[in-house]
Structure formats: C-alpha cells, structure tokens
C-alpha cells in the first residue's frame, strides 16, 4: 500500500496513526475559541485540525432555511445561524496561521464548490469530504480537480454510494474513513468490522475511522483493527451550546486518546514472532527444557 502524504505526514499502515482534531463548528463563530481548540489539539499531539466551510446560501438545504432556532445570539432562522458561525477569509487566515505555527496541518470540509475555491486560495494541504457530501458529485468533481489529497468520510452511505464517490475522486491520493453519522454514536452502531470491509474493497487506499461516540474505547479499538487515521470532534466543554459539543472530547479526553493511540501503535509491532530481550532472563530462570 502506498502511503498518502498530507503536509509533512504520511498516512498508511506502516506510519503512525494520523490524528485529526475536528473543530468543525465547535468554535461557534469565535476566532479566540478556534485558537484555543487548536492549542488543545497541538498540546495533545495531534497532527491536524479540521474545520467546516460552507457558502450558506448554497449549502443550506431549502427546507431548513427558515426553520427557527434558538442561539446564543437570540432566535434566528437556520440560514441566519449558518451565516453567523461562518469565518471569513481574514479569520481563516488568522486561525490557519495559528495552526501552522503550532505545527499542525489544517484543512476543512467544503460543503459546496465555491467553498472548495475559497480553501484552495488559502493553500490548504488537503480536503475532507463530510459524510453528508458523499453523494454530491458536483462537489466531488471540484475536489478531484484540485489534485490535493482527499479524506472521505463514509457515514450515512451505502457501499454503492462510496464506490461512486471513489470513482470520481480516484484512489491515488485518497484516504477513506469508516464512520457512522449518529451523534452521539451508540456502540451498537459503530460497526467497526466495516474497517476490514473497506480495506478489502479498496486495496491500496488507507482506511481510518471518524468517531462520534462518547469516550475513547471505540476509537482505540478502531486503531487496533488497523485504522490508519482517527478523527474526533473536540470541545472545551461538552455542555456548550451547539450541535456537536455533546459528541466531542474535552481536552483531557483528547489528550488521553492521542496518548493511548501511540501506545497501541507501539504494541501492535510488526507481526514477526521473536524472543524479545526482556524475555531472556525469565526464559533462563523458568524454562526447564531447551531445544
């Protein structure tokens, strides 16, 4: 399998797990909060932070636009809310520079073709396809045209829909993430054996995991099953207002996740059965028959 290069990192089975801190919209439209979350990711030892980029007038579904929503800024339509939490170019430059200075790759999930162009102008190192966008072939074609590495989440999608997306995106610079788009994710819907299904279906493509569960166990099990990348939402406080905070990890939880991912990476080894140096003294003391 050929590893996929993103920034200064490589994603593949013989590489350290690529850990993505999904900030998404958990910044609530606040640059200071976004920077604080970038710091959380960097301090924990992640490799990347990810945001979401929309052109609200295009990306907001028609039937959702006038739905009223209570927000920290008062009651407003869903479309107004989407405008309220979007960062403009100057704000993205500020948070992108902060991520770079903290040693992180940064990119976003564009939800429409103009957002792809917006992110390209900012020089992102990769693009992410959100699970909701797997069937948006116009968007996928715009992403494929960039020539950048693409990370494809597969929640709420059938294998046929994923096949169609891969056909458009190509497999040369592609990373696929198993995901289930339930927030928060109950264990019975995690279906982690799908990682092996995707590995068999798309040979040569690194397969990872994007999780929306509470806690760490499912993400760590995904690593043990061969996930080459792990993406988790992060927040400063799960009780904050917003749709994704409850399914996010707080700073200490995210730090523990990265720590445990690294321990599992060391523990998996290379699969070659051997006698390790630490076994020599017990072997001399305990083994009665030597052959």
UniProtKB/TrEMBL annotation:
<dbReference type="InterPro" id="IPR051690">
    <property type="entry name" value="PseI-like"/>
</dbReference>
<dbReference type="Pfam" id="PF03102">
    <property type="entry name" value="NeuB"/>
</dbReference>
<dbReference type="InterPro" id="IPR013785">
    <property type="entry name" value="Aldolase_TIM"/>
</dbReference>
<dbReference type="InterPro" id="IPR013132">
    <property type="entry name" value="PseI/NeuA/B-like_N"/>
</dbReference>
<feature type="domain" description="PseI/NeuA/B-like">
    <location>
        <begin position="37"/>
        <end position="273"/>
    </location>
</feature>
<protein>
    <submittedName>
        <fullName>N-acetylneuraminate synthase family protein</fullName>
    </submittedName>
</protein>
